[in-house]
Amino acid sequence: MRLVRPLENLIDQLVKLPTIGPKTAQRLALFLLKVPEDEAKALAEAILEVRLQVFPCSVCGYLTDLDPCYICQDAKRDKNIICVTEEASDVISIERTGYNGQYFVLNKEFHVMEGHDLDEINLDSLEDKLASGEIKEVILAFNPDVDGEIMARYLASIAEAHQVKVTRLAHGLPVGGDIEFTDELTLRRAIEGRYEFME
Ligand SMILES: [Zn+2]
Questions:
Q1: What pLDDT score does 184 carry?
Q2: From the CA of 99, how far away is ligand 1's center (Å)?
Q3: Which protein residues have their CB within 5 A of the ion that is ligand 1?
Q4: What ranges make up the beta strands (E) of the chain?
């Protein structure tokens, strides 16, 4: 069966989105066919607007429509502490914890198995900040996997060269987890991230 060209075109665009397979793309396209014209227009405009107006902050790399971003401009935030993350989405999660320091977002996926090189990560503005002496602590908020481990060691060596303290998130056991079935890396990080326990 052949669909008319505009429908086929929409399905072809939707199927490029993450987690959308051909069946879901078709279902979405048929759904969009029925939405009121103003809603369809608003969706198309919203997509264009983020594409044209949202960009990484030149200071921290977080997504913004103003440069520097609102976090970098906020005088009430702690200027002595900086949290390094891989993606802007990690900042959204960390903001929910009440963290009040600065950020540095790499905005670059690093996968050692895909032959990525650490030199591809642009750390110029982070190094400038470290060199200024303003930063007292760098928190490395990388995923607890092999790539996160490699990046953490690399970033730690750079921060240590500027005599800045480096910390990592404690990757503990999941609530309801079982030590017996916990993988070695998680358990090792949980032991390293142990904290003083008081009655
Ligand atoms: Zn910023």
A1: 82
A2: 15
A3: 57, 59-60, 62, 68-69, 72
A4: 55-56, 63-64, 81-85, 102-105, 137-141, 165-168
